[in-house]
Amino acid sequence: MTLTPVLTDTWDKDRSWRLATYERAGGYAGLKKALKTEPADLVQAVKDSGLRGRGGAGFPTGMKWGFLPPPDGGPRYLVVNADESEPGTCKDIPLMLASPQHLIEGVAITSYAIGCDHAFIYVRGEVLHVYRRLLNAVEEAYKAGYLGKNILGSGYNLDVTVHAGAGAYICGEETALLDSLEGLRGQPRLKPPFPAVAGLYARPTVVNNVESIASVPAIVAKGADWFSSMGTEKSQGHGLFSLSGHVTRPGQYEAPLGITLRELLDLAGGVRQGHELKFWTPGGSSTPIFTAEHLDVPLDYESVGAAGSMLGTRALQIFDETVCVVRAVSRWTDFYAHESCGKCTPCREGTYWLKQVLHRIEAGEGQDSDLDLLLDLCDNILGRAFCALGDGATSPITSSVQLFREEYQAHIDGHGCPFDPSASALFAYTPKTRTPGALAGAGAGGH
Amino acid sequence: MTVTTNNPTSEAAPVELVTFTIDGTEVSVPKGTLIIRAAEQAGIQIPRFCDHPLLAPAGACRQCLVEVSMPDREGNVRPMPKPQASCTMTVAPGMIVKTQHTSAVADKAQQGVMELLLMNHPLDCPVCDKGGECPLQNQAMSNGRADSRFTDVKRTFPKPIALSTQILLDRERCVLCQRCTRFSEEIAGDAFIALQDRGAHQQIGRFDEGVLGFAGEPVGPVDRPVGEATNDTSGRPFSSYYSGNTVQICPVGALTGAGYRFRSRPFDLVSTESIAEHDSCGSAIRIDHRRGQVLRRLSGEDPVVNEEWITDKDRFAFTWQSAADRITTPLVRENGELRPASWVEALEIAAAGLTQARQAGGVGVLPGGRLTAEDAFAWSRFARTALGTNDVDQRSRVHSAEEAEFLAHVVAGSGVGVTFGDLEQAPAVLLVGLEAEEEAGITFLRLRKGALGGGAGGRTGGTKVFAVAPYATRGLTRMNGTLLPAAPGTEAEWLTSLTTTLRGGLSPADAPTSDIDTSALAQPGAVILVGERLAGSPGAYAAALGLAEATGARLAWIPRRAGERGGVEAGLLPGLLPGGRPVADPAARAEIAQAWGAEVPETPGRDTAGILAALADGTLGGAIVGGVELADLPDPAAARAALDAAGFVVSLEVRASEVTERADVVLPVAPPVERAGSYWNWEGRVRSFGAALESSALPDHRVLHVLAQHFDVDLQAASPTEAHLSIAMTQRNAWTGDRLTVEAGAPAEPPTIGPGQAVLATWRLQLDAGRGQDGEQFLAGTAKRPVVRMSAATAAGFGAADGDRVAVSTQRGAIEAPAVITDDMVDGVVWLPLNSAGCRVHDTLGAAAGDLVTVTVAERTEGNAR
Ligand SMILES: Cc1cc2nc3c(=O)[nH]c(=O)nc-3n(C[C@H](O)[C@H](O)[C@H](O)COP(=O)(O)O)c2cc1C
Ligand code: SF4
Ligand code: SF4
Ligand code: FES
Q: Most buried of A41, A60, A357, B436, CB within 10 angstroms?
């Protein structure tokens, strides 16, 4: 399989983020065509294309738009989820940095299709440079008449607000995002009602990922058939595959769904020279890990699912044999404990506990019973938490204990980590010694 | 005692039932029922923490997980992949639910959550207030593992945060169920705590500029509590009248009340159901005592009245009943001094003195407004039969003849009228002369529930609340209410103009009507709530009645004191006999004479003001007084002089008061906690309670019964049972004759407001200097500090700025308090709390609402100098 650059097509152009660059490459043809099309036909075209949400869950995008109740005269909103925070996931941020107009054109078309006149882009708070770039891109689009009043003479009006979050992974969960956007505490909402019925300000709302929306202009311009000609039967179209870690040329590879890691590694120059693949994540840290055994699993929703993991955000983190799986999993768990929103008991308390157990094992203070404890705790969290963050926190632990149980046991039996952390670093690195037990409670302000 | 209940005339829609299976049993419940509630109906208890029937579902704790299978489109029942939170999911036809009793998955899920909750819990149960009645403790036993696998480091917090002088928060005990925060947002609407931080650091926190991104506007003196308090989520010092409810619903010992903290163990307490005595709502409460000492009060559960909430006053103000100034023996005056006496002696002296006074012009009867129904009937009967007088008036407050007529015409003998439930369902409610949050706290919660759309019945949008008042209070704002601005004394103008416009007429040119849409008040089911303060506004009661008659709106009267509705029923008014019977009506007198077996005097008597005046000038020979605070009367000085001048005074009292100082005989009576009785709440519902404490103290009706024997009168009130029977006798037939008609009081000439003057607006705050709150310093700390409210224009007229100390004065005296510029307040009006510490309006100013006062700047605050 070869690359299919659509969203990434202009990334290597001079000043690729400028509107002019985008227009020169045929940008905004989709919007022009869309404004002459019936909104319902646009929704149908996206349905026909087979585009599935690129934010992780893979929900059919056209179908999601179709869930909106019929217009009642009140506002309806499009909210673009640009909170990209999952460890390993790095597609939306490069896209918005290199070619923000893809997203803005997609926003204009989608808003028109669903009858929305105010769209929001919720950007992860830490990526200030992306926030600035988006602000400039929106301003350029306003000036060029692609946004604002009477767009391209069609009589259609659209305002776009770019909003920066405050840096919380949970605010990528769509209902927490909506609360955060409304100025509330970013915690997931009880569903139903679903955003399509009562989303932003309790109005019908479509929440979509950046890549999902950015994929829309080409579908409109080139047709649903063009899009569905790529990919597999149920996972159609192109997608960004983000390779990171121990790989020769890390980066974003845009390819049809169904490509394998083996093919991608070929394109990326293989695993770090002189080393071999030990384990990898197919869709970010919340998806169960794979090993070299899974090199030929087609990276589409169905095949990855059948192999026991999830396609997620196609965030392929590659780890070679120098990496201690306990250490890697422990770091991910730190992340989940830090990012748990605190709303529900299993995730809030569970990650707090898991983190301590993993730290103990890594420091050589584990007990034989700890591995079963880890698995049982994960069992008590998975499917019991309020939202998918809690579930995601268990994926790396459960899958790594299953695949690398001896390695965990070696930490316990050997009272320490058998790996040299500096060997896995890509730069000169002297590991800091962790002082176990220094983990203080969460005393007021003590963090 | 018989009570007429109102049969809701509206056809109740047939409830649609849903049949599903739980733990193998098929159950039918109303559509929309949550699984956890349906399980309760089937007798299955699913453990829970965040769930609370009166709060919106949160699904946060995950303790209530059950296994659910649902029929798919073809009708095949398929298990859902994960256990579901039973507190957030409603039942569906054909659903199969397996709880911990029949599902290993549900059982393990619950044990797993429980283990996680206990992992960071301090397990300081032996010193925790909740230990012994703790849902966490109990459910850890029933649905938890016997041991914990947690050997790592626990989360700790420094010891408690004092949210106010009354409420403390120990964060390490908190299970983050959000009941407290949801209560304060959803029910009370005065959020003072919020979730903060995230993950394992998540905690319930007070106002914190860093966390809440507070804009930093300094908050002025308004609504600032007397004691220390942390700021609430809007950055004001926290003051809530409902905060104690959070202590009660906290499923662990994280929130505690300062008064009870570390004082007792639940298993040492004896609990008695009772009814709160602090307002006319008749809230169900529970009194917990240990060896004769009341240690705390909790809210009872009564879905039709107070649901599960009570005010902080009803919860915390109980020490007044055992204060050091309790009168424990009868006292008689000898050589100018009171000395203890035996009951026999005291009653003899009292009877002799009253007999003499009766001959010397008559005896005035001032029974006060806090009586139980049993007492009220005994007082009424005592006055009419033993003393042969209609000079009886329970109103120790501003009162008028128009009010007495209104009560006789509208309220007396009307049974259960408007109910709390009606308020929740009403399309619109008009409040006149009533600040519900301050004067009938639980009524406010119901109104707010209705206003926020909590009512059932497929109603779209909530109750529209309107208030005729001088300014929009925080309470009105929290009900999304609309102010119909009126200076005190001008309420009738609004009501008359509404009567015209709602009937489709054009409002008179000088009417206060504006572009406010009040049409909802003409919809069926609309309610007008009038407060006792209308007595100070001539014509207002009559106008309220006129409005109700014109629009078909239902009318209810909400007095402040617990006994006033019962007093109206008993005829504790000069022109009124029991059951709404006018004294002046011979048929009415005959009915009562028959029930009482004694003649009833035929001339209507004097009202409170008339009685006091007649005592002062010697027209009346003496008085018998029950639980009256002289400072509550509109002119306390005159009242003191009247009792000083009175020939003979008998007082029935719980605690020593200014009346004691002037009494010739003092007969101690029992406080509510030491006796049985009933309050007739403002709805007209009879709220009976038993004695919580054993006591030899006697209730009023018993004392009067024995006293009446000296007059050869059998009051038939020796025991509560006998008192009930005799009430039933008087009530056997409803009065079908004419009722008193309401004559509008002559409208007072609008006062000419000179420079430096304003019209006084004033009412009581829920927490103030009332003697019912004596002895509870933690509660006192949460009372609002007195302020003088005025509009910006009014303030400018006085040269005053926000925060300046201003003096409000009359010829009698002056009160100083900080000025608070209040948006949208009627110009030319200043408002003061009526009876707060350092702000005794009646006593210091000798003034009441509607009177003219003079305002001067006493002291400028820094930065306000001009
Ligand atoms: C903890 C958590 C974090 C998430 N973060 C993101 C995110 O950063 N970006 C995103 O698009 N979707 C994220 N999602 C998924 C969203 O909830 C939602 O499914 C998605 O935005 C829908 O868009 P799509 O249909 O276009 O994929 C997250 C979900 C969870 C549970
Ligand atoms: S699983 Fe629970 S605590 Fe974790 S992020 Fe979701 S709602 Fe918050
Ligand atoms: S303080 Fe109590 S009520 Fe509030 S969240 Fe904690 S446990 Fe729940
Ligand atoms: S009781 Fe159901 S989640 Fe808390």
A: B436
3.40.50.300, 3.10.20.740, 3.90.79.10, 3.30.1330.60: CATH of B17-119: 3.10.20.740
Instruction: State CA A441 to chain mean position distance.
Output: 31
**pLDDT of B511-538, one tens digit each?**
665 678 899 999 999 999 999 999 999 9
User: Domain A238-320 belongs to what topology?
Assistant: Ubiquitin-like (UB roll) (3.10.20)
Domain ranges in chain B? 17-119, 151-322, 331-397+565-730, 410-559, 757-859
CATH number for the domain whose boundaries are A19-228 = 3.40.50.11540
Residue A383 to residues A378, A386, B106, B272: CA-CA distances in angstroms?
A: 9, 8, 12, 44
Sequence-distant (≥ 6) Cβ neighbours of residue B707 within 8 angstroms: B347, B350, B351, B382, B386, B667
In the predicted model, what is the mean pLDDT of chain B? 92
CATH 3.30.160.250 fits B331-397+565-730, yes or no: no
Q: Is the pLDDT of residue A228 over 90?
A: yes
Closest CA in chain B for residue A334: B199
Query: Please, which pLDDT band fits residue B236 given cuts at 50, 70 and 90?
Result: low
Secondary structure (3-state) at A121: strand
CA distance A56 to A72: 31
Q: Please tell me the predicted confidence (pLDDT) of residue B327.
A: 97
A388-422 per-residue burial string, b: 16 or more CB within 10 A, e: under 16: ebbbbbbbbbbbbbebbeebbbbbbeeeebebeee
Which residues of chain A have a Cβ shorter than 8 Å from any chain B Cβ? 168, 170, 185, 187, 190, 337-346, 348-353, 356-357, 360, 369, 373, 376-377, 379-381, 383-386, 437, 439-444, 447
For residue B302, give every residue at least 6 positions away whose Cβ sits within 8 Å of its Cβ, in sequence order, or none.
B283, B284
Q: What is the pLDDT at residue B209? A: 53
Joined together, the tokens standing for residue B254 give: 């994280």
3-state DSSP assignment of residue B529: strand
CA B22 to chain centre: 41
Closest ligand 3 atom to residue B177 Cα is 8
Domain spans of chain A?
Answer: 19-228, 238-320, 325-424
Supply the pTM of this predicted model.
0.93
As a residue count, chain B comes to: 866
- Is the pLDDT at B38 greater than 50, yes or no? yes
Q: Give kind and range of the element (H or E) at residue B596.
A: helix B586-596
- Please tell me the distance between residue B82's alpha carbon and the centre of ligand 4 in angstroms: 15
DSSP B178: -
CA distance A347 to chain B (A): 8
Assigned CATH topology for domain B757-859: Barwin-like endoglucanases (2.40.40)
Atom 29, ligand 1: residue with shortest CA distance: A173
- Residues belonging to chain A: 447
Name residue A341's amino acid: C
To probe the interface with A, which of B63, B111, B116 has the most A CB atoms within 10 Å? B116
The token duo for B304 is 């039709």
Alpha carbons A22 and A9: distance in angstroms, whole number: 10
Please compute the mean of the pLDDT values over residues B320-331 and round it to a whole number.
96
Contact A81, A209 (CB under 8 A): yes
State both tokens at B412: 């007396």
User: If you measure from the C-alpha of residue B814 to the centroid of ligand 4, how many angstroms do you get, rounded to a whole number?
Assistant: 56
Which segments of B644-685 are extended strands (E)?
A: 648-653, 665-668, 677-680
The CB density around residue B365, as the number of other CB atoms within 10 Å, is 29
Question: Domain A325-424 class?
Answer: mainly alpha
Band (pLDDT 50/70/90 cuts) for residue B220 is: low
Nearest residue on chain B to A382, alpha-carbon basis: B82
Nearest to B2 by CA among B716, B684, B831, B465: B684
The CATH code that applies to domain B410-559 is: 3.40.228.10
